[in-house]
Amino acid sequence: MILLKNYINNIYNILYKFIDIIVFLFLAIFKSIHLQKIISPTYFNYKSILKPTLFPLLMLLSIGLLFKQKSRVIYLYIINIIISLLYVVDFSYFKSSSDLLSIVSIKNGYFKDIIFTNSFINLVNTQTLFFILDILILIPIILIYRNKINSHINIIKRIIVSLILFLTSIVFNSSYINDLDNEQPGLLKNMSNKLYVGRILGDINFHSIDIYNYFIRNNKDMGNTNYSEKEITNFLLNNMSEKKTNEFTSIGEGKNLIVIQFESLQNFLINKKINGEEITPNLNKFIKRSLYYDNCFYQVMEGNTSDSEFICNNSLYPLSSGAIYYKYAANYYNSLPKLLENKGYTTAVFHGNNEGFWNRSVMYKSLGFQNFYGAHSFNLDEEIVMGLSDKSFFNQSFDKINSFKEPFYSFLITLSSHYPFTNTDNTFNKGNLKETFLGDYFSSIHYSDKQLGIFLKNLDRSGLLDKSIIIIYGDHNGVTSNHMEDVYKLDGINSPNEFNYFMYQKVPLLIHFPKDEYKGINNRYVGQMDIYPTIDNLFNLRNPYMFGKDILTSSSNKVLFSSGSFIDNDILYFSAYDSYYNIKSGVKIPCSNKLKDLTTLYKKELDYSHTILKNDLIKKFTQSNSY
Ligand code: GP9
Ligand code: MN
């Protein structure tokens, strides 16, 4: 009996000695799990989230173990306050924007916007009490407890225990981070889906990675960004001076602008038939009424769809590594929506996915779109792949557009034809391609083409078609390199090489003018970088900070890629192979000093654009009115 009493006494003493640690862990885990449940309503899973939320807490605890008990109590209390406040902010930010808070959203003022909305203030008043109630209750308890404790653990022991706990938690925690990094390469760097990262790794890990990205990873930029502002402005001035006034200048003024970025649409699908059926019958029809560029290359890099959007609205080169939408979302831009707004346009962007994907809600603020219709602005009555189906997306977007005050700029980004192309439209007969990657891809594009066709018909019926300039282009490839063999086979290309691969990286680009004016096919080599300069001329915007060219004016055949590859008239340089080709024949050209100089010159152009982004130079240029 006495033995048992002693035993219980011992346990009690130990518990009493470490009660601060137990309470801290209990409260922190409880709050962490509660937040995880909120940000991950459908996929929440105790088992998978417990460890990635626990290890960062153990790391924080291990630092506390270095202190004497009296100070440790205070340290853990402060850490509890910090975590609680972070969760309050994250909870409220999530409820208002369906996304997680990041450094750039604080920097570009998006966070401030959210704080000043009524919904945020309401949330702070009521539901968030859960996260902070214990902070007040704990004050008297801590004061009493601190007076009663007098245990001393020797410093060496404290250091050893702290170090062991710190190292084990860091090893385990890193293994979770590395697993996600290997499973989805680039996700942690580009943060295309912040919410997903937070759901898998927990909130504290998400913020730690975000802070690391912002302060450390982003500073390790590649390339030379030390060019003087003078040199860059001279280059841009020169680029501008190539622009001449022509028959297209200002013809868009007062007209609406509708730009449709079509997910994963490659050019080789245009006019292609499978078993006698067209994959894109509606685009094919509309192309006949438009000015169609059949040699347009996509220029996106790691930022994928977001790069494509960025290029179209800024005509600055994407980064060779990282996504501008995440990395430079707090920069100042002389973007297309801003310049059109200056001309009295109503501007809006439409996309049926969660607003936080690709950091859109934050970036669209910097790009200056007046309205962003994301998943929460639509009735999600039908979902395909990552969000609203293109059918419902186009229908609902049309209703909104039709009610806009004119003139307007509407930028629509489709979604259903995204990999894994599971929205296989049963109406499309895949024939031999049934249950193949290509068959699914074609079928998926066929579905989205059909919805686009209905949207265009609606524009026509409402009279908007003749009052608008419409631009449609594909964002990037749908067929990844590991499936290109199937394409070559289908197209009868024997012994394909890297040149063939390169020439497949085209997307359709078409410009439709009211009353089908200027329709025809243009074979010049162009790229997505040229869209904004072309619109600039049509709507007389006069943005001096663009790297692309107005394809309605310029006679040059130049397309420059952030990888360093380029097309210059008959020359194609493919950086991945460090090889030059005649673009017409595909025959390799031996390297010469002249070609090397040209490559260096283009590399410099990319560095200029990168320097602008890194040093937020457009802000400086526009503020100082340097030209
Ligand atoms: C997500 C969509 C797809 O909203 O735009 O992005 P992607 O994976 O193609 O970059
Ligand atoms: Mn895309």
How would you describe what is shown here?
The structure is a single chain. The protein is α/β, with parallel strands linked by helices and 627 residues long. The strands form 5 sheets. Strands 7-6-10-1-11-12-4-13 form an 8-stranded mixed β-sheet, sandwiched between helices. A 5-stranded antiparallel β-sheet has the order 15-16-17-18-19, with helices on one face. A two-stranded antiparallel ribbon has the order 2-3. A hairpin with a 2-residue loop joins strand 8 (383-384) and strand 9. Helix 19 (390-402) runs parallel beside helix 20 (437-462). The mean pLDDT is 94. The structure holds (2R)-2,3-dihydroxypropyl phosphate and manganese (II) ion (MN). Manganese (II) ion binds at residues 263-264, 304-305, 475-476.
**Which segments are poorly predicted (pLDDT under 50) over 5 or more consecutive residues?**
none
Strand line-up of the largest beta sheet: 7-6-10-1-11-12-4-13
Taking all residues together, what is the mean pLDDT?
94
Number of separate strands: 19
Estimated share of beta-strand residues: 5-15%
Give the secondary structure arrangement, pairings included.
Blueprint: H1 2-17, H2 19-39, H3 46-64, H4 69-97, H5 103-107, H6 110-115, H7 118-125, H8 129-148, H9 155-183, H10 187-190, H11 194-201, H12 203-215, H13 229-241, E1 256-262, E2 273-274, E3 277-278, H14 281-287, E4 291-293, E5 296-297, H15 304-314, H16 324-327, H17 336-342, E6 346-351, H18 360-367, E7 371-373, E8 383-384, E9 387-388, H19 390-402, E10 408-413, H20 437-462, E11 468-474, H21 484-490, H22 498-503, E12 509-512, E13 520-522, E14 526-527, H23 531-538, E15 558-560, E16 566-568, E17 571-574, E18 579-582, E19 588-589, H24 593-614, H25 617-624
Parallel strand pairs: 1-10, 1-11, 4-13, 5-14, 6-7, 6-10
Antiparallel strand pairs: 2-3, 4-12, 8-9, 11-12, 15-16, 16-17, 17-18, 18-19
Helix pairs in contact: 2-3, 2-4, 3-9, 4-7, 4-8, 11-12, 14-20, 19-20
The structure holds (2R)-2,3-dihydroxypropyl phosphate and manganese (II) ion (MN).
